[in-house]
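Usage

Read records sequentially. Each one opens with the input sequence:
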Amino acid sequence: MLKRSRPFALIAVLVAGALVMVLTGAAKPLPGAPFALTGHWVFNSVLQTVFHIDGGTGNIDAYAEVHGEPGSQVVQGDTHGYVVGPTGITEFDKAKLSEQQAIAMPAPANEWPVGIEVVGGPYLVYRNAGKVVRLGDPPAIVPVGGAIGTPVVTMDGTMWLHRPDTGQICTLGKDADRVSGCPVGAPPGHPGALTIVDGKPAFVDTFTTTLHIIDGDKLGPAVPLGVPISPNARPATHDLAGRVAILDPQRQSLLLADTRDPPGKPVTIALPSGDYDGPMSTGDVVVLVDRQSGTVLTYGPDGVRKDSKPIKQKTGQPRLSRGEDSRVYVEDADGTQVVVVAKDGNVREVSTAELPTTPQLPVPAPNTGVPTDTRAAAPPAQQQQPRPRQEQTKPRTATTPPAVPAGRPGAPTSVAAQAGNSSATITWGAAPDNRAAVTSYLVSWQASTGQTGSTTVGGGQRRTTVTGLANDVRYVFTVAATNRVGTGPGASSNPVNPVQPQTRTVTVSRGTTERYNETCEVPECGKMRVVMRGFEPRKRYKVIPYASSVYSNPGRTVTTDRNGNLTFEAFHFGKVGATVWVVVEGQLQSNRYTWVSG
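and closes with the structure output:
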């Protein structure tokens, strides 16, 4: 058991996972050291196992059983790793993987945090709640005072945070337990984000399309980015060979803007149609993930694509993270595959779907300076070994096998989502209970904007409706079952985009003037112009005209376009002063229009 003092209410000791080290050359426990951390830890929620990936070789050099929630991320410090879920954090010793403990601290907010591995960290940043958690001994929760954007950290360990509501740019020192101050101010209300350029913090103002290097306690001169960008454009947190990489989801483009003053010509990359996450920079290349096609893409500072690699698991939300080794790691939703992007843009796939099958070695004991060669000595020369004494075989006695213990539930089946107006309805099938009744289901979601949330429903429910979502934003929902043993792996839904339904309207007015017959002559005679909006796309509707005077017309059947709209002219009429209207499918009535001469 780890003996540590923590400012939180309780530290619970978890069941120790079996420690294993993979024999890959010189396999050994991962030492703790105050140097730049290498490699990446990933949590496989199906196997309930953490794997350490050597970023240079792509090999798995350590793994151990650690319990965690579906979708959990792993961040590492000098000596410990942390499996971070929406409701709890499990700490493990990187050198003694068999020792685990849960940090019983309430989640600062109902959202997935941004994990940052840097000197003085690791950190968890709850952007919507405006809180930063520094994990360590002891851990600390630092309130910022309001919602924040994605922070950046300079080489000295100072974290810089931007508050979009006030425009304040605040700092958090490497070992500080509170915000050091807010020495810099960006224009309040201006959308934008922070980045690192040549080791210095900078602010990208997407409202004015400029970049400002932070110089002491003020913003430096505005450097134009060279091309217009959308207010919701996202810069990478680190520059790319002196250029800042900015993803513009609205324009489906990636901008590589020169940060010099005066700047050079910007590079604009037209991206294939998709739903992109990122950008993230290694310093030499920029990395994007197309969630729609499930592809990792890398580009150089000249805009040329370097490499690409598919993500095998197409459901759920992949996660990008930048390690202290400047490599970018992309995990699939369940932690069964990791794509490693080297500094030069080379992409390597690492499977963490199964436990390695190579021979395993126990962790060596600490080096005490005493030789530890334990090879068996040869027996003395000419010494006869005694023959083993044979024992009589005893008859076997039939025994009752022990009962199989209960386990965490399996993944729910047939998880699906249907979008509504600022809402979504999620349905699922029952999860295997694994010999312990399911007591609840955790329904969590993540938006393409990075916002997250979750709700818990009873074990007997098979559907729930989540409200308060943003329209025209992509959401993926994950459902996981819980029983008395714990929470099982999650299963993800299809992506959906809540939308505000259009109100169905039908408007009639006078259309083209033309003769129909001797009873309907110009200029009085003409067609009715009918405008339909907000109907179901590509569906047939029967439209019948009516009038306040004697008039009879069987109407016609029309088909809406792909957006549910249609404008057409039909139904000749020529009685000036009479009122006309149309009815769609015998239910929806248009406005009343007084007929005029053409």
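Summary fields computed downstream for this record:
- The longest strand covers residues 505-513.
- The two ends are 92 Å apart (CA to CA).
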